[in-house]
Amino acid sequence: FTPTLRKNHPEPHTLLTAxxxxxxxxxxxxHWHHIHxxxxxxTTTHIDLPTYPFQHQRYWVDQDAAHVPGSVAEDDGFWExxxxxxxxxxxxxxxxxxxxxRNVLPALSSLRDERRKGSVLDGWRYRIxxxxxxxxxxxxxxxxAWLVAVPGAEQDARIxxxxxxxLEAGGVRVRALIVNGDDREAxxxxxxxxxxxxxxxxxxxxxxxxxxxxxxxxxxxxxxxxATVTLVQALADAEVGAPLWVVTSGGVALGEAGEPASPxxxxxxxxxxxxxxxxxxxxxxxxxxxxxxxAEEVALLRDVLAGGxxxxxxxxxxxxxxxxxxxxxxxxxxxxVWRPRGTVLVTGGTGGVGANVARWLAREGADRxxxxxxxxxxxxxxxxxxxxxxxxxxxxxxxxxxxxxRDAVRDLLESLSDEPPLTAVMHAAGAGHDDMPVTGTxxxxxxxxxxxxxxxxxxxxxxxxxxxxxxxxxxxSGAAVWGSSGQAPYAAANGFLDGLARRRRARxxxxxxxxxxxxxxxxxxxxxxxxxxxxSGLRAMAPEIAAAAIGQAVAAGxxxxxxxxxxxxxxxxxxxxxxxxPLVSAIPEFARALAGSDTVExxxxxxxxxxxxxxxxxxxxxxxxxxxxxxxAAAVLGHPSVDPIxxxxxxxxxxxxxxxxxxxxxxxxxxxxxxxxVTLVFDHPTPVALAxxxxxxxxxxxxxxxxLLARLDEMEQLLREQALPSGExxxxxxxxxDVLRAAERPNGExxxxxxxxxxxxxxxxxxxxxxxxxxxxx
Length: 778
What we know:
The chain is an alpha/beta fold. 46% of the residues lie in helices and 12% in strands. Helix 15 (488-506) links the parallel strand 13 and strand 14 (512-516). Helix 6 crosses helix 10 (295-305), helix 14 (443-464) runs parallel beside helix 15 and helix 22 packs across helix 26.
């Protein structure tokens, strides 16, 4: 018997405790899937059980893994005390009317809940700002040789001529590469013919995005964007290691009213964010220019290109100044928030994110919610969602419509009655996608990934025209802001949405693009992709809290907002592993995480290791360090033994990525207690190479004599263990005598007679002793 009700205890908590008690104390197995299905998604975590019970490995989530960011814990005790007492008893203790208390307590509890959610959301909000920076002036320096990729269809455009001529006037030797189309093999051949071994270049400048015309076969991307993808591939095929810089115009806005915005140019910025992650050694950066740059602005472009290793890699040049892109916290939303009313259309409305947005709309007061998806009413869970939204007080329409089909979207909009009128659009449609490294993609791949996002947004924007709306919200992604490995096509599509929102605002229309992190509750944090994002430091956001950011962004009139829950302690070291990341350098948590990555927990372990190594011969010390590296590497990758960690195999071939490389570095940091760079695994790419580096850091370089003596110890031991014929021993002895004579006269000079010693008459044991003595004082 176990109780399912307890006085002053929440009924769901007591019931679940009772079920757990039955499960652990009896042979009865509850139907857990029923419980999980009906639980709130944010409170349920599924952990896979071990496949075999006697392999003693830990699979369970640590207690501190159940982290709720931004939680307000200071007043929990007070509220728990209030909740534990019956209302009448509490009223008597407070000397207030019990009826009044019954009315006010729920309101206070609701207010507290809203404040807690607001506190969490404050920690998720970021925005993009532009800060003017000073770059070193290239001046009269030699400009070097640069390969400049020029779009064939726009080679006579003024901006292209101004850039090329301005670089040449500043001393840059331009090697022009005219690009027509997106034939990878042909372009790689052109690159090889333009760059010969005798005529290497200092960098590659890509002007291809300036061709802003739609691609004839893939209209959701521009000809210039497609050619840029092909150029990245051709440079890799031609093994060009010079840094690649990409130029756009109208790809970003610095906040000036009426500043031109091009969604196609903005999509290149999204792609560039991923190239900086996937190709850190060959990616230079991205620069946005005015449509008609003046001579001084082209000179600033040259200055940016000539900068050193710490130069900015995301800049916009405007009015004679260089502005660097920064992501900064934006914790406070507007005092008032937008509340939905009338009819709100949600694309992707039956999917994970769209369904959660629909729930928020219904709770906040939308009269009617139109859920749009390809499958319509046949989508999984559509009927249940409709019932749920109806229960929240909203009328529901579920429509089957391919938002990439312009005629279908027109028919859908015309079918909506004016009662209640359409007041807002939430464009949350998108297609699932696998990782797509740029070098393994085609323009068709890019277009396919972004089709639903881009074509759907364009159709809605154009077909609604200047229709007055309260909100036009585009669901973008953080992949277009900080980059996500293997997600260049996806990031490019989301960058397009960022540009479209700015273009709408330039036309005087409402529009906001929200770059989301990972949504929980059926969003992108589900499955293996979500696991990878979680390991990188992106945490799943509770849908009911994340959705509240929509009301804030619309009320504030934002054109762009970033909403994400990032564990900076985990995210920062991996993100900054391969190159500096100025974009997030202004975030305090990022800086603290990088500074904290050099700390160690205690000093005893490193001292013990150094002491143990000091008593070993060089070969033994090397083997011990290789064993240490292999053990820590196996632990990081989850291997039960070191066998898969081959000593001479590269870490990237063993399965290490940027995140696990940082984890291995941190493990070795704790084991050795010496300062190790975050690029440790990149700089020393095999366990043997890494062990050699650790040995150099743990012990000062030995004197030549000490090293020779250690080797003599090994040789002496070897000689004593070998049963050598007398003739062989004599040969070895003669060789040692020659060595001693050479040691006595290291420079071939004659020595004083009293310093000489005749070694020919020594026995073998005497010879070894003399050799030891000579080398010890040499």
